[in-house]
UniProtKB/TrEMBL annotation:
Keywords assigned by UniProt, alphabetized: Glycosidase, Hydrolase
Recorded GO MF terms: beta-galactosidase activity; carbohydrate binding
Pfam families in alphabetical order: Bgal_small_N, Glyco_hydro_2, Glyco_hydro_2_C, Glyco_hydro_2_N, LacZ_4
GO CC terms, sorted: beta-galactosidase complex
Protein's recorded name: beta-galactosidase
Enzyme Commission no: 3.2.1.23
Catalytic reactions on record: Hydrolysis of terminal non-reducing beta-D-galactose residues in beta-D-galactosides
Family membership: Belongs to the glycosyl hydrolase 2 family.
Domain Beta galactosidase small chain/: start-end pairs: 877-1265
Taxon lineage: Eukaryota, Viridiplantae, Streptophyta, Klebsormidiophyceae, Klebsormidiales
SUPFAM superfamilies in the record: (Trans)glycosidases (SSF51445), beta-Galactosidase/glucuronidase domain (SSF49303), Galactose mutarotase-like (SSF74650), Galactose-binding domain-like (SSF49785)
Annotated spans, Disordered: 840-864, 1028-1079
Length: 1287
């Protein structure tokens, strides 16, 4: 269908080659000039990049007069039957050529003042960022702020009149006319997206187009926004040329001024500028009307993984330029090989209006330049010193018509260089003078002197192979949508810098122009990416020629998007790579883009992942989600001379980013690997009013949007309000600029910076020594100056912790922390930059006892116990009746644990092998767990609500309610190819691990020791999935959504660089599945040793069927009274951590509550765990009621989770705000083993094999010790208390 549609379009264009410009409706008097223009457009589709640079922006005088007279209005508008938004060769009309931001300053001083003010952004601004509906006025404030002190630029942002028509054909008649009565229309803030104000609805999809794929056609039901705004042109603009600029509009739009059509544009992330000099006049009122279509052929090029939002979402500006003015300038800083000097080269374009004489007039104009030093080196009352003057040159080079160039050069000796570490910025001021020497105008920008190149497997910045510690960033505000605010952008950068992030990939489009200025200022490496993604045409990336890049009629649009990006952004030092777009395959259009960009800007390498990341078009190998062993393999390939920089890795969907440390072990130790960009920065949740009349973060489908990809927009390491996820601590640690390791002689500190010394001026160091969780000492430590990429050793013998270490008797840790020595633009003095905890040898001699916490002989002072078996119960009671532990013989579980008259348990402990699924647990192939589960009709859940899964690289969510018999489950699990790509949650449910119940139990009292200090009760349990009823009408498979035009999807496994690179995680369930018998079972033997002190030691042996899938956890679950909500632990913390994401969590003593331990991921699941816990105390806030849990015997530390919510509640809730604390009590999970959380991606089973729990025998021991009423004993002392030795 796709091929046929494109072929039909080709034939149509061949039959009427002028159709794209509507020439069939144009009068004979205009035919000749317009046919010439049509010919240029057709030829542009197949021209070389060198020719394509001359685009349609410069119009002939005759065509311009016709447009101004309104004679083209009928041909370009709907009145003529035209549908320009469905013509891929027609993506703009009458747009001024792209250029860097221009400000038309009156003189050098005003230019310097402007940039001085724009260079004051800092952390204090970030603190003012608003993330709710209060941000709307701030958006308008920012729009005005960005144009303040610019006498010839006026912001037109504000409240515009707005009407939403259901389709272009139904826009109000004559609404573009100034006299039209818009009194019945409402107001809409510009900039904003109209869906964020109740018009239409937001739609979220990952790659699926939200309309039938019949390119270039879009639905006839095409919501069309009609805007009107009236303003007065300042009298001061008299005699100047007037330009109307739209910095960003989604998706396609016509612009009318005073009833006259002035232009048309597509590309929602780049500006369009229209010359309205002959329509608007100084001192008079002017009416703008905009007709904006939600869908256009341009939408096929903008299939990024984000919300589909429409309207004027960036600023609208009115510029007044002199009749002769600077129209473009290109800055290059060509550094010598040794970096000792740099040639500053500035190519300036000067243009005149058509009313001015052409060549003769321009030759009389001259351009000169002055380079000033950084504002930080100047008194705020004075302008900075001059670094260099660029000699005056006439505007006489390459003169064509009304345009000419002047090239200025100057040699800088020992220039200060720009990098993300040291973002030194000069200020360049260009001055245009007329023949009399009078200043006509000035243009200015900040300039960073640096060079970027690729050599021998390295991306070099100023000759250094900088490590990319990056994130992908969408422009996203939970209340404003795509509209940006100054303080919010500053907040993003400050938070990134504070967490050691040094690079951003602008995914997947050019961002707001202010973003680049801020990245220059703060220091951030950028990948600037063209606004192109056509993922939906070939989501499996195996139908290469499905992609639009292969169709000639789309080539010009591809090149235009790349070229205009470069023309706007080229002067920013922060941009180190140009990107050709994202997930759009690879073909001729990409080659044309690359050719144009390389010719226009040879100073930067190119980046493009499409075509599997290693095509000839890219200068860096930039795969996404490739497994560690594969990127190492690429880097070690002797034939590959390019560096490997992952454009996306560590998919941060919910509780994720597991094993990210393994990537960094490879990055830091493999030549040719230079880091990557985490996917992604922020959860793209939008605020939506909930049933409780409060606003909460919503995801795909919450607005009734169909199709949608549900929670797949929630991939950030920060929430929508920029609160950090727990994983940010892991990222900050792995990205930190210091490597601190323990050596035999002392502590080694390696400076990972490339351009910055570690010195007392920049960083201060502190230390802390602890033993068994008790701090023995702390203080500051002096560290010698460490040059970049060098190290220093702090000797143990002379270190300040040497004395404190002598008193260490147990497990001993040294924590070293580096903090800011002073304030910076992005952080305050004392901000933690780097930290490391290292293990020191224990102070005491001898090893750990074979069985911890047990005395070698008989106990003294411990009450004796007695045992009674009666009425199906086994009771163990202390001789003073202060302790009673009761077992239910039928279930083999503890039914009551009472100490001093207080119940410490509501339910449990019960063996547990299941967790509330996280997003990564739900990842599986398209051909596996959804399709085959449905085909097999397997029901593995007794859930109140449907189960929502995110599957495959495209994240299509579907609601599933299905059923089948056990034999179907076994059949599915036997299919090896199916199982390896099947989601963990699907395998767990197929095996029934989510609903295990006791099928058989035996309870027996074992012999007691002679002193009756304890009694042992052994329970033998067989756990099997609960019985269920077959649905009366059979199973059902509900597809929440399918677009009729959905193309063939990617098979499981995916393409090498795109999804499931390398072999999947090893699945240990290799044993044959029995054809008959039980569906799957787990035998558990628990020997409880009950002491008269109230202590209980559970020795557990687990024997699962060997064909079962990897287990989610192996441990004990229990519910304790809800009053016992205080939690203290000695283990890793303070933040959430799991077996494969704990590198940043230090061992120590921490306190919290069950409420605060919960992590409010927007889509709930397993969360709040703490790893390597030596002991945990769960008690009432006053400490009068509770117990301490610790591993017993030689069992290693526990994974602990304490929550107000049950697994069932966490699984069933679609949003965090739906969770209600369980009235039954607090849920406690004490895990001997817990599966990793994964995160290499979220659409395949991605937990690394060493963090999987194979279905093998497990043995462990857990001790529960009561906190006695009135006792002042510390929890650590309770955990360390010795008990009588057991045999």
């Amino acid at each position: 269908m796709l091929q046929a549609a494109l072929q039909r379009r080709r034939l149509s264009s061949q039959r009427k080659p002028w159709l794209s410009l509507g020439l069939e409706k144009v009068g004979a008097g205009q035919q000749e000039g317009l046919e010439e223009r049509a010919g240029r457009f057709r030829a542009a589709c197949c021209r070389t990049a060198e020719v394509m640079v001359r685009e349609q922006a410069v119009r002939s005088k005759e065509a311009m007069k016709a447009a101004m007279a309104g004679q083209l209005g009928a041909s370009l508008g709907l009145a003529g039957g035209r549908r320009d938004w469905e013509d891929p060769t027609f993506f703009g009309w009458n747009k001024w050529k792209a250029h860097v931001p221009l400000h038309s300053h009156t003189d050098e001083d005003s230019a310097l003042r402007f940039w001085f003010d724009r260079s004051q952004a800092c952390k204090e601004d970030a603190a003012k960022a608003l993330w709710d509906d209060k941000a709307l006025p701030e958006a308008l404030k920012s729009a005005r702020q960005w144009t303040s002190d610019l006498p010839y630029t006026q912001s037109l942002s504000g409240d515009w009149k707005f009407h939403l028509a259901p389709k272009p054909e139904e826009v109000p008649k004559d609404f573009v006319e100034p006299a039209y009565n818009d009194g019945s229309w409402g107001d809409l803030t510009v900039p904003s997206n109209w869906q964020m104000h109740g018009h239409d609805k937001p739609i979220y999809t990952n790659f699926v187009y939200p309309f039938p794929m019949t390119p270039p056609y879009v639905p006839s039901e095409n919501p069309t926004g009609c805007y009107r705004h009236t303003f007065k042109v300042p009298q001061e603009y008299e005699g100047r040329r007037l330009f109307l600029e739209f910095q960003g509009v989604d998706s396609a739009y016509y612009v009318y001024v005073n009833g006259t059509l002035v232009g048309y544009s597509q590309d929602s992330r780049l500006p369009a500028e229209f010359d309205i000099s002959n329509i608007a006049a100084a001192g008079e009122e002017c009416t703008i009307a905009v007709q904006c279509m939600r869908w256009s052929d341009g939408s096929y090029l903008e299939d990024q993984d984000m919300w589909w939002l429409s309207g004027i979402h960036r600023d609208v500006l009115l510029h007044a330029k002199p009749q002769v003015s600077i129209s473009q300038y290109q800055v290059e800083t060509n550094l010598s090989p040794d970096l000792a000097s740099a040639e500053l080269k500035v190519k300036v374009s000067v243009e005149s209006s058509e009313s001015e004489p052409a060549k003769r007039a321009l030759a009389a104009y001259t351009v000169e330049g002055t380079l000033y030093r950084d504002f930080a080196e100047a008194d705020t009352k004075h302008k900075p010193e001059i670094e260099a003057r660029l000699e005056k040159r006439p505007a006489s080079e390459d003169a064509v018509g009304h345009a000419a160039n002047a090239t200025l050069k100057v040699l800088l000796n020992q220039p200060k260089l720009w990098s993300a570490e040291t973002p030194y910025l000069y200020t360049l001021v260009l001055t245009l003078r007329d023949a009399s020497g009078k200043v006509v105008e000035c243009e200015a920008c900040r300039v960073g002197v640096r060079k970027v190149e690729v050599k021998e497997k390295e991306l070099l910045v100023n000759n250094k192979p900088v490590m990319i510690r990056g994130v992908n960033r969408h422009e996203h505000h939970p209340s404003l949508g795509k509209a940006m605010v100054e303080e919010n952008m500053v907040a993003d950068i400050v938070l990134m810098k504070a967490n050691n992030i040094n690079a951003v990939r602008n995914s997947h489009y050019p961002t707001h122009p202010r973003w680049y200025e801020l990245c220059d200022l703060f220091g951030m490496y950028l990948v600037d990416e063209a606004n192109i993604e056509t993922h939906g045409f070939d989501p499996g990336l195996h139908k290469v020629k499905n992609q639009l890049t292969w169709f000639p009629e789309w080539k010009a649009a591809f090149v235009d998007r790349g070229a205009r990006m470069v023309q706007r952004d080229r002067n920013h030092a922060s941009i180190v790579l140009w990107s050709l777009g994202n997930e759009s395959g690879y073909g001729p259009a990409h080659d044309a883009m690359a050719e144009w960009i390389r010719a226009a800007d040879p100073t930067r390498p190119l980046h493009y992942e499409g075509g599997f990341a290693r095509t000839s078009v890219t200068d860096v190998v930039c795969p996404m989600y490739t497994r560690v062993f594969d990127i190492v393999k690429i880097a070690r390939d002797k034939n590959e001379k390019r560096p490997v920089i992952m454009c996306e890795y560590s998919h941060a969907m919910g509780n994720s980013n597991g094993s990210i440390d393994e990537y960094w072990e490879a990055f830091e130790n493999t030549h040719g690997l230079q880091g990557g960009f985490i996917w992604d920065w922020v959860d793209q949740g939008l605020l939506k009013l909930g049933k409780d009349n409060k606003k909460h973060w919503a995801y795909g489908g919450d607005f009734g949007d169909m199709p949608n990809d549900a929670t797949f927009c929630l991939n950030g390491i920060v929430w929508p309000n920029r609160s950090p996820h727990p994983a940010v601590a892991e990222v900050k640690y792995l990205y930190q600029p210091l490597a601190i390791t323990a050596e035999a002689e002392g502590i080694k500190i390696f400076n990972r910076f490339y351009f910055t010394d570690v010195s007392s001026d920049s960083l201060s160091f502190t230390w802390s020594l602890s033993s068994d969780g008790v701090e023995l000492g702390s203080g500051s430590v002096s560290v010698p100056n460490i040059p970049p990429r060098n190290s220093a050793l702090l000797s143990h013998a002379s270190a300040p912790w040497a004395f404190s270490r002598q008193s260490a008797k147990g497990e001993t840790f040294l924590t070293l922390t580096a903090v800011q020595a002073g304030d910076t633009r992005w952080a305050s003095k004392g901000h933690v930059v780097a930290t490391q905890q290292v293990t020191l040898p224990e102070g005491r001699k001898g090893g750990t006892p074979e069985r911890r916490n047990e005395s070698k002989g008989m106990s003294s002072g411990v009450p004796k116990v007695r045992v009674e078996v009666k009425d199906g119960r086994t009771r163990v009671t202390s001789e003073d009746d202060s302790v009673q532990v009761e077992f239910d013989n039928a279930t083999g579980t503890i039914s009551r644990w009472t100490v001093d008259g207080t119940d410490l348990l509501v339910r449990g402990p019960f063996p547990s092998f299941w967790r509330a699924p996280i997003d990564n647990d739900k990842g599986g192939g398209e051909t596996s767990y959804i399709a085959k589960w449905a085909a097999g009709g397997v029901n593995r859940s007794f859930l109140v609500k449907p189960i929502h899964f995110i599957e495959n690289v495209f994240g299509k969510a579907r609601s599933v309610v299905v059923s089948a018999w056990p034999r179907a489950a076994r059949a599915l699990l036997r299919a090896e190819a199916f199982v390896l790509n099947m989601s963990y949650v699907a395998r767990w449910k197929l095996a029934g691990l989510d609903r295990l119940e006791i099928a058989n139990a035996e309870t027996a009292v074992l012999s007691q020791p002679a002193d009756h200090a304890f009694s042992q009760v052994r329970t033998q349990l067989r756990l099997e999935p609960s019985k269920f009823k077959r649905p009366q009408k059979g199973g059902s498979f509900t597809q929440s959504y399918f677009a009729d035009s959905t193309p063939e999807l990617e098979p499981s496994g995916g393409a090498p660089s795109q999804a499931n690179v390398g072999p999947p995680s090893v699945d240990h369930s290799s044993q044959p599945i029995p054809e008959t018998g039980h569906e799957g079972k787990i035998d558990v033997s628990v020997t409880y040793s009950v002491y008269g002190s109230g202590d209980i030691v559970a020795d557990v042996e687990v024997n699962p069927d060997t064909w079962l899938p990897p287990l989610a956890r192996v441990g004990l679950d229990m519910v304790v009274p809800k009053e016992m909500k205080a939690v203290e632990w000695y283990g890793r913390g303070p933040h959430e951590c799991y077996p494969d994401r704990k590198a940043s969590a230090w061992v120590g003593r921490y306190k919290s509550t069950a409420h605060d331990l919960h992590v409010p991921y927007i889509s709930p699941g397993e969360c709040g765990g703490r790893a390597d816990v030596r002991w945990v105390a769960i008690s009432s806030p006053d400490g009068a009621r509770g117990f301490v849990a610790a591993p017993g015997g030689i069992t290693r530390p526990l994974q602990v989770n304490v929550s107000e919510f049950s697994n069932e509640a966490l699984e069933q809730a679609l949003h965090d705000e739906e969770l209600v604390p369980d009235e039954a009590g607090i849920h406690v999970h004490l895990d001997h083993e817990h599966m990793g959380i994964g995160g290499d991606d979220s659409w395949t089973p991605s937990v690394h094999s060493k963090y999987l729990l194979p279905p093998i025998q497990y043995k462990y021991s857990i001790r529960l010790s009561p906190i006695r009423a009135g006792a002042k004993t510390d929890a650590a002392e309770i955990a360390a208390k010795e008990l009588p030795k057991r045999s």
